[in-house]
Design brief:
The protein is α/β, with parallel strands linked by helices and 639 residues long. Helix content is 37%, strand content 19%.
């Protein structure tokens, strides 16, 4: 049986990467600055003034920042066998990169977090990391932290903004002051190895206090070389950046695209849809919630069309859905039919043939306009940070935008598996990166399980962290003596080496009948409803599952007979959601009776980062939601 598992001949191997023998991340930047000197590296159209820097200009600023830090005495502050820690609390901007690489080039390592994080969390990270200096986004963030900084051993603070530093007893310098200091100071060479720590990244996990993940230069450099075996962006190609840079997923991807001479354009939630059209990116990396938002925007446009046009669009989408399903089976890329016989695949190819004509017409009349609406140049988008729902996978495949899913953790810097353009099995999380090993074991006995059987995922490879900073107990729990990392995720490996994640070990809901339910696939199915914006299943130790639902108020208002006076508790609204939840769960492939959602409640407040119900990668903080709504959940199951 033929499966499209082999990479095309022009895909480089791990050893062919120009960065294979590089010892540190700053050395990678030195090579990139030489190779792509005049190419625009970063473009921030939303800053005032607008910022554009070539690779040569960006690298020069990194060098000056490094020598400025050395002039401030950074090297003299090193008293341990690991580099001195400098905290870098900022959101995305070109100066973040200057500070990040300047810190490493100076002989220090950075401790990163976003400017919007909770004050107590930032102070905890500062104290726990033993940071000797602090780089902050602006005066606003400094003022938020300032009352508590005198209790910490900070030697100085640097503002990334052009604001005037306060004169309040704490040595504070502006970004440009550090650069000027660096211009008049010789840069003393430091010689980190691949085993030298590059950064501490504190997990933003869905529960508990963050742990400081110790990542080395080698962890990230492995990603730079390994990612080139998956995709090969070209110098000058445009990448739209929206995810927080302090998150490992975005950070590793940025190092990779900069190693290839791409131009990064900064955007945000407010401007992303406009920037897609204006800057016509070739690539973008995001999380499922971002693709859901883009999908919802397109669906909204469909709903605003005249009824005849709506029916035509529905006709094309329905038949294109049948076409892509048949095509996946025919080409051995259907996760549910990877072992399809030659006869089954031939029949699928016959089914696809007449549907292809309808699909091509749909492309000409509808799908091409959708691609133009997101710039018209996307070669693919990368999705991570959580599982992507099947209906999104299907839709973007239909309209001709490839989504390459993948898998990883902060503890693996982060990528371990990725789907390839030549083997894009939707619903799976891809094949391992070169030299990365995957084991599936029984969660209780830790005995290896056969291929195709679900269990706990263990990972071993060059991207795996050194451990958790000052936390040997957590390190020993996560990493065994042979270097295998316990991911905490459940899944399986197919006979063709595709990883399939089925849920989090600790997210599993156990009903009173002993059935184990993975909430994510059921939640993904429910999100297909135009009336549901967010959903979280509950029901631990209950007879049936329950759900907390955030309604899509805009769609609900249109449906309602009295839009100005919407009552979420009215019998009509409750019946609508009862029907939606029942229908969507039953339509899900592999539906079992235990998947049925019993009681539910409609919430008036969405899950957001601001109310601490979402992580910064837009995953639901299940334990926080449980705590917030425990009374409602108890009442829901007792009524």
């Amino acid at each position: 049986m033929s499966h499209a598992t082999h990479a095309p001949a022009n895909v480089p191997t791990l050893e062919q990467s120009p960065y294979t023998r590089v010892k540190s991340l700053p050395d990678m930047w030195a090579i990139a600055a030489q190779r792509f000197a005049t190419v625009t590296a970063v473009h921030d159209p939303h800053s005032t003034p607008e910022v554009k820097l070539t690779y040569a200009e960006l690298h020069e600023q990194m060098q000056h920042f490094a020598s400025g830090l050395q002039a401030l005495g950074v090297l003299a502050l090193s008293s341990e066998d690991i580099p001195p820690r400098i905290a870098l609390f900022s959101d995305n901007c070109p100066r973040w990169l200057v500070a990040d690489q300047g810190i490493m080039r100076s002989g220090a390592m950075d401790v990163v977090r976003g400017a919007q994080a909770d004050r107590d969390e930032l102070l905890y990270i500062l104290q726990h990391s033993d940071a000797i200096a602090l780089v902050v986004q602006d005066l606003e963030l400094l003022r938020k932290l300032r009352p508590h900084l005198d209790q910490l051993p900070l030697q100085f603070v640097i503002l990334l903004s052009d604001e005037t530093p306060p004169d309040d007893g704490l040595k504070t310098l502006a970004f440009n002051h550090v650069l000027e200091l660096g211009k008049t100071s010789a840069l003393r060479p430091v010689h980190p190895s691949r085993d030298t720590l590059a950064t501490l990244m504190y997990t933003s996990g869905t529960s508990g206090m963050p742990k400081g993940v110790m990542l080395t230069h080698g962890n990230f450099l492995y990603q730079v070389s390994a990612a080139a075996t998956v995709v090969q962006p070209q110098a000058g190609e445009r990448v739209l950046s929206i995810l927080p840079i302090w998150h490992c997923y975005e950070r590793a991807f940025e190092y990779f695209i900069f190693s290839n001479g791409c131009t990064q354009i900064y955007t945000n939630i407010r401007f992303v849809k406009k920037d897609l059209k204006d800057f016509k990116p070739h690539y973008m990396v995001g999380v499922p919630r971002l693709w859901e938002s883009i999908y919802e925007g397109i669906q909204k446009q469909f709903r605003e069309q005249p009824e005849k046009k709506q029916k035509l669009v529905e006709f094309f989408l329905k038949n294109s859905q049948r076409y892509i399903k048949a095509q996946r089976t025919a080409t051995g890329l259907d996760l549910d039919h990877l072992d399809a016989s030659a006869t089954t695949r031939a029949i699928a190819a016959l089914k696809a043939a007449p549907l292809e004509l309808i699909h091509q017409l749909g492309d000409k009349l509808v799908y091409r306009k959708i691609r133009e609406g997101v710039g018209g140049s996307l070669k693919f988008v990368v999705s991570g940070g959580g599982s992507i729902a099947d209906h999104l996978e299907d839709f973007f495949e239909i309209v001709g935008i490839d989504i390459l899913g993948g898998y990883g953790l902060t503890e693996t810097a982060p990528i371990t598996h990725a789907r390839r353009t030549w083997r894009n099995v939707r619903g799976a999380d891809g094949e391992p990166l070169p030299t990365t090993e995957t084991r599936v074991v029984d969660p209780e006995t830790r005995q290896a399980l056969p291929v195709g059987e679900r269990g706990l995922i263990l990972i071993r490879g060059q991207q795996v962290m050194k451990g958790y900073y000052k936390n040997p107990e957590a390190t020993a729990k996560a990493l065994d003596a042979d270097g295998w990392l316990d991911t905490g995720d459940l899944g399986m490996v197919t006979p063709y080496n595709d990883l399939v994640i089925t849920g989090r070990a600790k997210d599993t809901i156990v009903l009173t009948n002993g059935e184990n339910i993975e909430p994510q696939p059921i939640e993904d199915a429910c999100l297909r409803s135009a009336y549901i914006d967010q959903i979280m299943l509950v029901g631990q130790d209950q007879k049936v599952l329950g759900a907390l639902v955030v309604p899509n108020l805009e769609t609900l208002e249109k449906w309602s007979a009295t839009p100005g006076n919407l009552d979420l508790n009215s019998a009509a609204v409750q019946e609508l959601y009862r029907q939606e939840l029942t229908r969507l769960v039953k339509e899900r492939p592999g539906y079992r009776a235990d998947d049925r959602i019993g009681p539910f409640r409609l919430l008036t407040e969405p899950f957001t980062i601001d109310n601490n119900l979402l992580t910064h990668t837009l995953k639901i903080r299940r334990n926080v939601v449980m705590d917030r709504y425990q009374g409602m959940i108890n009442e829901m199951f007792s009524s």
